[in-house]
Amino acid sequence: MDEFTRRAALKSGAGVLGAAAFTRALAPLTEWVPTLSKDEFLQKHYRELSREDMDKILRHIESKTKKLYGADVHVQDVRPQRDMEFGYALNLSICIGCRRCAQACHKENNHDRPTGNSYIRVLEMTQGSMSLAKSDVDYDHDVPAEGHFYMPVQCQQCGNPPCVKVCPVEATFKDGDGIIVVDYDWCIGCRYCEAACPYHARRFNWSAPQIPAEDINPNQAYLSNRIRPQGVMEKCTFCLHRTRKGRLPACLEACPTGARVFGNLKDEHSDIRWVLENKRVFVLKEDVGTLPSFFYFFDK
Amino acid sequence: MITVPLLGLLLNLACDTGYTDASRQFAEPLASRGDFPTEIHEPTDFGILKTPIVDDEGKEKLPAGAACETCHGPEPDPDLYTPPPADENYHTQVEIKHGKLTCYQCHDRDRTKLHLADGTQIEFVDVIALCAQCHGPQYRNYIHDAHGGLNGYWDTSQGAKIRNNCVDCHVPHAPAFKKATPVFRPRDRYLKGRD
What we know:
heterodimer, A: 300 residues, alpha+beta, Alpha-Beta Plaits, 2 domains, four-stranded mixed β-sheet, two-stranded parallel sheet, 27% helix, globular, B: 195 residues, three-stranded mixed β-sheet, two-stranded antiparallel sheet, 9% strand
């Protein structure tokens, strides 16, 4: 308990986010455990960190990954570009439900191997119905099957994100290019956000991810695919470690059917804008008012 | 000591306030590395036989792998090139499941080339022009990267977009997209309870 008060005192001095930190200190789940180093326990909120702080943290994560996983990785703090808002669209006439996107996500984002975790779930839908409740995710036959279409669902990077609103400690927030991120070092694992998400797009790390060293994707970012600690939430970030540097998301590149379109919504010449202007697109669960940046459309 | 209601107010404010180090809010603009034109993946096996040639008894005369030039070049191999009677199809194993198209709607009399509807000869590598003349809507989607998939960069100041070729996904003679066996069956604990 001593640690708590000291931490709260340290944080409340640091201005507005200090207050958030203060709530965190009050949060019942935050507890100092022996595997947590003193520096980690005292680490500030993502937005409070100076560049020097961040650099130290990144190097620390790298050496920790080396120690725990035996892998040499490069972790960066990849920040958004100005005048950028990412959008994603998926052509449901083209998708055949092969799940290669989910597999690519699993590898790209250093997901736990034993549970086969992925930020993408592919729903087998019945033709003529948009009921997610009646969909199947566990199908195991050649695709596309007669009478069905397939709908991959991942984080919709909402303009009005319920997950962000319910976070009691501001560990999850909407970043400058519209991507909703999680500061894994700040997350207390209360899972409110998981419950709040209408798209079931958030995942919880029940255990520390297990990944053989040779399978680890070494190109990592603090806010995206670095290996998450146990007990924190995680979610799709549109592969921000790739997309913020101009590359395409891993799920798009892996799609063998070409069903996915990605780009900058603020650039009127982008592919994504062409789709929004020329196809009849819709968003999932429009009625809940989440304002997704993820769109679906049919060709025919 | 901060009281709880005030704390709530501060938290709301916190959503709007930026970074302690303001320079961390956005990245430095990415330096342009050039203006990369879109590339199109080029199959390497054009002009190579994929359907074996068989004799009247159905015995394989020539396996897959031979170049069209072996028989259709300027100096055909006399042992191999024996034109059949006029109206007979030589490549008997080639089966067209593509509307009601016939060989010469795509192939040229010079067998090492294709041609467009107006007779313009094109090389095999330019096959997209052939597909495009009959499949306008898909081609229009394709040039906006909304059909056919993409690799590489969405930001062409950082690197090129690489499009697939129509024939990477559609075999010209039977272009229906093949069924697939799904990979990566989920085994997490969230299989039930969606709404």
